[in-house]
Automatic annotation (TrEMBL):
GO terms for biological process: methionine biosynthetic process. Keywords: Lyase, Metal-binding, Zinc. The lineage of its organism: Bacteria, Pseudomonadati, Pseudomonadota, Gammaproteobacteria, Vibrionales. It comes from Vibrio spartinae. This is 2-hydroxypropyl-CoM lyase. Pfam families: Meth_synt_2 (PF01717). The keyword Lyase applies.
């Protein structure tokens, strides 16, 4: 029988301090050339090992080989000039100096496929691989070529589909697209964002997920959250259409967030990765707190469709905090799994 409530993380985990400066986004690498290649592989092995020690069921690379979840993918594409930068507002929230799209975008070679093969060699557990979503990619660039957000997103969707097919062939079980931009540009999401995502997963036989969150626990995000009021109803705008989409799994921020949990009713029938770990605080959840979040979600998500997860990536957190949070996630899931088994017997 399949294990109920399989645990996983949203994606990124802290890197060892010999590879990159800890607790820093876009942290520069401390190694170079051959040493960097081997250092990244060693970090990936360590990250896998830590997930296994914590009892995580669906494991990942912890994004150890990338500097940033969007930028690293874009760096491998043609048509984007990283020397030609413009300042834009990312997700209407914070200014960043971003590269410019100067011509047709394309993927001259695969980006993460070798890393995925390496992870596949290390474990027989199910593996999940994260890619940026098309809408989040266009939001991290200045477009001087297509002059249309929708057109550029469509081109990225085609590129992501090529990469996803190769990841599937490399043995990845779940391919996840990170779309924090889905929580900001609701009209675009409904007009063409979900269609682009479906283009990105076209023809895949492995499972697919979309991760939609309120971002890392960095200041720009926590400041933005303060403006959202006491109830965060952003998900409500896009859930009806997502429920109708071909995406198998929806990964969400739930614990400590102001998202009314009953919004999950709008995606009933989908598998849901329920964020039960807050990544915006160093406070470690107790197993009972994790269990509570999962119990609440179980009112709207069938037990066989509920995947306990973190709210977002944990790359910016201290390593010991991230490890303790993974342990709490496993312990909390174990509590609820036991309750479900007891119910089953009665
Ligand atoms: Zn996230």
């Amino acid at each position: 029988m399949k294990k109920l409530l399989p645990t996983s993380t949203a994606g990124s985990l802290p890197k060892p301090s010999w590879l990159a400066q800890p607790e820093t986004l876009w942290s520069p690498w401390k190694l170079q050339d051959e040493e960097l290649i081997h250092g990244k592989q060693d970090a990936l092995r360590l990250s896998l090992h830590e997930q296994q020690l914590a009892g995580v069921d669906i494991v990942s690379d912890g994004e150890q080989t990338r500097q940033h979840f969007v930028t690293t993918f874009i760096e491998h594409l043609d048509g984007v000039d990283f020397n030609h930068r413009k300042t834009v507002k990312i997700r209407n929230r914070y200014e960043a100096n971003v590269p410019t799209v100067v011509g047709p975008v394309s993927r001259p070679q695969s980006v993460f496929v070798e890393d995925a093969k390496f992870l596949r060699q290390q474990t027989n557990q199910p593996i999940k691989w994260a890619l940026p979503g098309p809408m989040t990619m266009i939001d991290t660039l200045y477009d001087d070529h297509y002059k249309s957000r929708e057109k550029l997103a469509w081109e990225f969707a085609k590129i992501l589909n090529q990469e996803a097919k190769e990841l599937e062939a490399a043995g990845v079980d779940i391919i996840q697209f990170d779309e924090p931009a889905f929580n900001v540009f609701f009209d675009d999401v409904n007009d063409w964002g979900i269609a682009c995502l479906e283009k990105a997963i076209a023809g895949l036989k492995c499972e697919t997920a979309v991760h939609i969150c309120y971002g890392y626990g960095i200041k720009a995000n926590t400041d933005w959250k303060k403006t959202l009021g006491s109830e965060w109803r952003q998900y409500e705008e896009i859930f009806p259409k997502l429920q109708q989409s071909n995406i198998d799994i929806i990964s969400l921020e739930c614990h400590n967030s102001h998202v009314p949990i009953e919004l999950l009713e709008l995606i009933r029938g989908k598998k849901v990765m329920v964020g039960a770990i807050d990544v915006a605080t160093n406070t470690i959840e107790t197993p009972e707190e994790v269990a509570n979040t999962l119990r609440e979600a179980l009112q709207y998500v069938d037990a066989d469709k509920l995947y306990p997860c973190t709210n977002c990536g944990m790359a910016p957190l201290p390593r010991d905090v991230s490890t303790a949070k993974l342990n709490a996630l496993s312990a909390g899931a174990a509590i609820v799994r036991k309750e479900l088994a007891a119910k089953d017997r009665h």
